[in-house]
Amino acid sequence: MTAEEKITEQPSHYDHLEQMSVTELLQHINEEDTLVATAVRKALPQIAAFVEAIEPRMKQGGRLFYIGAGTSGRLGILDASELPPTFGVPANWVIGIIAGGDNALRNAVEHAEDNAEQGWIDLSKYQPNKDDTLLGIAASGTTPYVIEAIRQARLNGLLTGCITSNPDTPLAQEAEFPIETIVGPEFVTGSSRMKSGTAQKMVLNMISTTLMIRMGRVQGNRMVNMQLKNDKLVDRGTRMLQESLGLSYEEARQRLLEAGSVSKCL
Predict the structure, then answer these.
(1) Which residues are catalytic?
(2) Which of 130, 121, 177, 108 has the alpha carbon at shortest distance from 148?
(3) Has residue 3 got a pLDDT over 60?
Protein backbone atom coordinates (compact mmCIF):
# COMPACT_ATOMS: atom_id res chain seq x y z
CA MET A 1 0.00 0.00 0.00
CA THR A 2 1.53 3.33 -1.09
CA ALA A 3 1.08 6.70 0.59
CA GLU A 4 -1.18 7.74 -2.29
CA GLU A 5 -3.50 4.82 -1.52
CA LYS A 6 -3.85 5.62 2.18
CA ILE A 7 -6.92 7.65 3.06
CA THR A 8 -5.08 8.69 6.23
CA GLU A 9 -2.44 10.40 4.06
CA GLN A 10 -4.79 12.13 1.63
CA PRO A 11 -4.96 15.95 1.67
CA SER A 12 -7.32 17.61 4.12
CA HIS A 13 -10.63 18.89 2.79
CA TYR A 14 -9.56 22.26 4.16
CA ASP A 15 -6.65 24.47 3.14
CA HIS A 16 -4.98 27.70 4.23
CA LEU A 17 -5.58 26.74 7.85
CA GLU A 18 -3.16 29.39 9.07
CA GLN A 19 -5.47 32.06 7.62
CA MET A 20 -8.55 30.90 9.55
CA SER A 21 -9.81 32.47 12.76
CA VAL A 22 -9.91 30.48 15.99
CA THR A 23 -13.66 30.03 15.62
CA GLU A 24 -13.35 28.81 12.04
CA LEU A 25 -10.69 26.29 13.00
CA LEU A 26 -12.76 24.94 15.87
CA GLN A 27 -15.91 24.73 13.77
CA HIS A 28 -14.19 22.82 10.98
CA ILE A 29 -12.46 20.41 13.39
CA ASN A 30 -15.84 19.79 15.00
CA GLU A 31 -17.43 19.20 11.59
CA GLU A 32 -14.81 16.56 10.84
CA ASP A 33 -15.23 14.96 14.27
CA THR A 34 -18.93 14.38 13.60
CA LEU A 35 -17.90 11.87 10.92
CA VAL A 36 -16.16 9.61 13.44
CA ALA A 37 -19.22 8.15 15.17
CA THR A 38 -20.71 7.26 11.78
CA ALA A 39 -17.53 5.47 10.74
CA VAL A 40 -17.48 3.52 14.01
CA ARG A 41 -21.17 2.63 13.62
CA LYS A 42 -20.44 1.09 10.22
CA ALA A 43 -17.79 -1.09 11.89
CA LEU A 44 -20.12 -2.41 14.62
CA PRO A 45 -20.52 -5.87 13.03
CA GLN A 46 -16.71 -6.22 12.95
CA ILE A 47 -16.41 -5.06 16.56
CA ALA A 48 -19.17 -7.41 17.72
CA ALA A 49 -17.62 -10.43 16.03
CA PHE A 50 -14.28 -9.69 17.69
CA VAL A 51 -15.73 -9.23 21.18
CA GLU A 52 -17.78 -12.43 20.86
CA ALA A 53 -14.61 -14.30 19.97
CA ILE A 54 -12.67 -12.85 22.92
CA GLU A 55 -15.28 -13.46 25.62
CA PRO A 56 -14.96 -17.26 25.97
CA ARG A 57 -11.17 -16.97 25.99
CA MET A 58 -11.18 -14.43 28.80
CA LYS A 59 -13.66 -16.51 30.79
CA GLN A 60 -11.14 -19.34 30.82
CA GLY A 61 -8.30 -17.09 31.92
CA GLY A 62 -7.11 -15.53 28.68
CA ARG A 63 -5.79 -11.99 28.51
CA LEU A 64 -6.32 -9.17 26.01
CA PHE A 65 -3.24 -7.35 24.73
CA TYR A 66 -3.22 -4.06 22.82
CA ILE A 67 -0.17 -3.23 20.70
CA GLY A 68 0.61 -0.08 18.75
CA ALA A 69 3.07 2.72 18.07
CA GLY A 70 2.76 6.43 18.82
CA THR A 71 -0.80 7.64 19.39
CA SER A 72 -2.19 4.17 18.76
CA GLY A 73 0.04 2.61 21.42
CA ARG A 74 -0.73 5.36 23.92
CA LEU A 75 -4.46 4.92 23.48
CA GLY A 76 -4.15 1.17 24.06
CA ILE A 77 -2.22 1.72 27.29
CA LEU A 78 -4.73 4.39 28.37
CA ASP A 79 -7.66 2.03 27.93
CA ALA A 80 -5.92 -0.87 29.65
CA SER A 81 -4.82 1.26 32.60
CA GLU A 82 -8.34 2.51 33.31
CA LEU A 83 -9.90 -0.94 33.70
CA PRO A 84 -8.53 -1.99 37.12
CA PRO A 85 -9.82 1.11 38.98
CA THR A 86 -13.09 1.19 37.05
CA PHE A 87 -14.00 -2.48 37.21
CA GLY A 88 -11.80 -3.83 40.01
CA VAL A 89 -10.00 -6.32 37.77
CA PRO A 90 -6.35 -7.39 37.95
CA ALA A 91 -3.94 -5.29 35.90
CA ASN A 92 -3.00 -8.34 33.82
CA TRP A 93 -6.47 -8.87 32.33
CA VAL A 94 -5.89 -6.20 29.66
CA ILE A 95 -2.33 -5.08 28.88
CA GLY A 96 -1.12 -2.30 26.58
CA ILE A 97 2.20 -2.47 24.73
CA ILE A 98 3.77 0.46 22.87
CA ALA A 99 6.68 0.53 20.43
CA GLY A 100 9.68 2.02 22.19
CA GLY A 101 8.51 1.04 25.67
CA ASP A 102 7.35 3.31 28.49
CA ASN A 103 9.61 6.13 27.31
CA ALA A 104 7.42 6.36 24.20
CA LEU A 105 4.42 7.36 26.31
CA ARG A 106 5.84 10.86 26.63
CA ASN A 107 8.47 11.03 23.90
CA ALA A 108 8.65 10.01 20.27
CA VAL A 109 11.11 7.11 19.96
CA GLU A 110 12.81 7.31 16.59
CA HIS A 111 12.05 4.41 14.21
CA ALA A 112 10.47 2.30 16.99
CA GLU A 113 7.46 1.54 14.79
CA ASP A 114 9.72 0.39 11.94
CA ASN A 115 11.27 -2.46 13.94
CA ALA A 116 9.23 -5.42 12.72
CA GLU A 117 10.72 -8.01 15.07
CA GLN A 118 10.39 -6.00 18.28
CA GLY A 119 6.59 -6.24 18.57
CA TRP A 120 6.58 -9.99 19.10
CA ILE A 121 9.64 -9.70 21.35
CA ASP A 122 7.79 -7.20 23.54
CA LEU A 123 4.70 -9.40 23.69
CA SER A 124 6.75 -12.52 24.44
CA LYS A 125 7.82 -11.02 27.77
CA TYR A 126 4.30 -11.81 28.97
CA GLN A 127 4.51 -15.46 27.92
CA PRO A 128 1.38 -15.34 25.73
CA ASN A 129 -0.67 -18.50 25.28
CA LYS A 130 -3.51 -19.74 23.09
CA ASP A 131 -6.18 -18.33 25.38
CA ASP A 132 -4.84 -14.80 24.85
CA THR A 133 -5.88 -12.19 22.29
CA LEU A 134 -3.79 -9.53 20.54
CA LEU A 135 -5.36 -6.37 19.11
CA GLY A 136 -3.08 -4.41 16.80
CA ILE A 137 -3.83 -0.68 16.59
CA ALA A 138 -2.49 1.30 13.63
CA ALA A 139 -4.35 4.04 11.76
CA SER A 140 -2.30 3.45 8.61
CA GLY A 141 -2.50 -0.33 8.81
CA THR A 142 1.09 -0.50 7.62
CA THR A 143 3.13 -0.24 10.86
CA PRO A 144 5.80 -3.00 10.74
CA TYR A 145 6.03 -3.28 14.55
CA VAL A 146 2.33 -4.09 14.75
CA ILE A 147 1.98 -6.20 11.60
CA GLU A 148 4.72 -8.65 12.52
CA ALA A 149 3.44 -8.94 16.09
CA ILE A 150 0.00 -9.88 14.75
CA ARG A 151 1.52 -12.34 12.29
CA GLN A 152 3.56 -14.07 14.96
CA ALA A 153 0.69 -14.07 17.43
CA ARG A 154 -1.57 -15.78 14.92
CA LEU A 155 1.12 -18.36 14.13
CA ASN A 156 1.34 -19.09 17.86
CA GLY A 157 -2.40 -19.64 18.24
CA LEU A 158 -3.50 -16.32 19.74
CA LEU A 159 -6.74 -14.71 18.60
CA THR A 160 -5.91 -11.60 16.57
CA GLY A 161 -7.72 -8.41 15.64
CA CYS A 162 -6.83 -4.90 14.53
CA ILE A 163 -8.15 -1.35 14.26
CA THR A 164 -7.21 0.65 11.16
CA SER A 165 -8.42 3.78 9.37
CA ASN A 166 -7.64 2.52 5.87
CA PRO A 167 -9.40 -0.33 4.04
CA ASP A 168 -7.71 -3.58 3.01
CA THR A 169 -4.39 -2.88 4.71
CA PRO A 170 -1.48 -5.29 5.25
CA LEU A 171 -2.39 -5.31 8.96
CA ALA A 172 -6.01 -6.23 8.25
CA GLN A 173 -4.83 -9.06 6.00
CA GLU A 174 -2.85 -10.55 8.90
CA ALA A 175 -5.57 -10.25 11.56
CA GLU A 176 -8.49 -12.65 11.91
CA PHE A 177 -10.83 -9.86 13.01
CA PRO A 178 -10.03 -6.57 11.24
CA ILE A 179 -11.96 -3.51 12.39
CA GLU A 180 -11.87 -0.71 9.83
CA THR A 181 -13.04 2.75 10.87
CA ILE A 182 -12.78 4.81 7.69
CA VAL A 183 -12.94 8.37 8.99
CA GLY A 184 -11.51 10.06 5.88
CA PRO A 185 -8.63 12.52 5.52
CA GLU A 186 -7.54 14.32 8.66
CA PHE A 187 -8.16 18.04 9.24
CA VAL A 188 -4.40 18.53 9.33
CA THR A 189 -3.18 16.26 6.55
CA GLY A 190 -1.78 13.01 7.90
CA SER A 191 -2.36 13.87 11.58
CA SER A 192 -3.94 10.59 12.62
CA ARG A 193 -3.97 11.67 16.28
CA MET A 194 -7.17 13.48 15.33
CA LYS A 195 -10.12 11.61 13.76
CA SER A 196 -8.33 8.27 13.57
CA GLY A 197 -7.28 8.51 17.19
CA THR A 198 -10.79 9.46 18.24
CA ALA A 199 -12.18 6.42 16.40
CA GLN A 200 -9.60 4.17 18.05
CA LYS A 201 -10.54 5.47 21.50
CA MET A 202 -14.23 4.89 20.81
CA VAL A 203 -13.65 1.32 19.62
CA LEU A 204 -11.36 0.49 22.55
CA ASN A 205 -14.00 1.84 24.95
CA MET A 206 -16.59 -0.38 23.28
CA ILE A 207 -14.46 -3.52 23.35
CA SER A 208 -13.22 -3.25 26.93
CA THR A 209 -16.48 -2.01 28.45
CA THR A 210 -18.52 -4.70 26.74
CA LEU A 211 -16.07 -7.37 27.87
CA MET A 212 -16.11 -6.11 31.46
CA ILE A 213 -19.92 -6.21 31.50
CA ARG A 214 -19.92 -9.71 30.03
CA MET A 215 -17.35 -10.76 32.64
CA GLY A 216 -19.74 -9.76 35.42
CA ARG A 217 -18.01 -6.57 36.53
CA VAL A 218 -21.15 -4.41 36.24
CA GLN A 219 -24.49 -4.84 38.00
CA GLY A 220 -27.47 -3.13 36.42
CA ASN A 221 -25.64 -0.07 35.12
CA ARG A 222 -23.33 0.39 38.10
CA MET A 223 -19.58 -0.06 38.52
CA VAL A 224 -20.04 -2.18 41.63
CA ASN A 225 -16.45 -3.47 41.57
CA MET A 226 -14.69 -0.11 41.23
CA GLN A 227 -11.67 0.46 43.45
CA LEU A 228 -12.23 3.01 46.20
CA LYS A 229 -9.21 5.11 45.27
CA ASN A 230 -10.52 8.56 46.20
CA ASP A 231 -13.31 10.41 48.02
CA LYS A 232 -15.40 10.76 44.86
CA LEU A 233 -15.51 6.99 44.32
CA VAL A 234 -16.24 6.32 48.02
CA ASP A 235 -19.14 8.78 47.79
CA ARG A 236 -20.41 7.14 44.59
CA GLY A 237 -20.28 3.70 46.16
CA THR A 238 -21.97 4.94 49.33
CA ARG A 239 -24.86 6.36 47.35
CA MET A 240 -25.21 3.09 45.44
CA LEU A 241 -25.63 1.24 48.74
CA GLN A 242 -28.00 3.84 50.09
CA GLU A 243 -30.25 3.36 47.09
CA SER A 244 -29.97 -0.44 47.00
CA LEU A 245 -30.21 -1.20 50.74
CA GLY A 246 -32.17 1.74 52.13
CA LEU A 247 -29.42 2.72 54.54
CA SER A 248 -28.44 6.13 55.85
CA TYR A 249 -25.43 7.72 54.21
CA GLU A 250 -23.17 7.04 57.20
CA GLU A 251 -24.32 3.41 57.55
CA ALA A 252 -23.77 2.81 53.83
CA ARG A 253 -20.34 4.45 53.93
CA GLN A 254 -19.22 2.38 56.91
CA ARG A 255 -20.33 -0.87 55.28
CA LEU A 256 -18.61 0.06 52.04
CA LEU A 257 -15.29 0.88 53.69
CA GLU A 258 -15.39 -2.32 55.73
CA ALA A 259 -16.20 -4.51 52.72
CA GLY A 260 -13.96 -2.77 50.19
CA SER A 261 -16.41 -2.70 47.29
CA VAL A 262 -20.09 -2.24 46.51
CA SER A 263 -20.42 -5.78 45.14
CA LYS A 264 -19.36 -7.31 48.47
CA CYS A 265 -22.15 -5.43 50.25
CA LEU A 266 -24.98 -6.52 47.95
Answers:
(1) 82, 113
(2) 121
(3) no
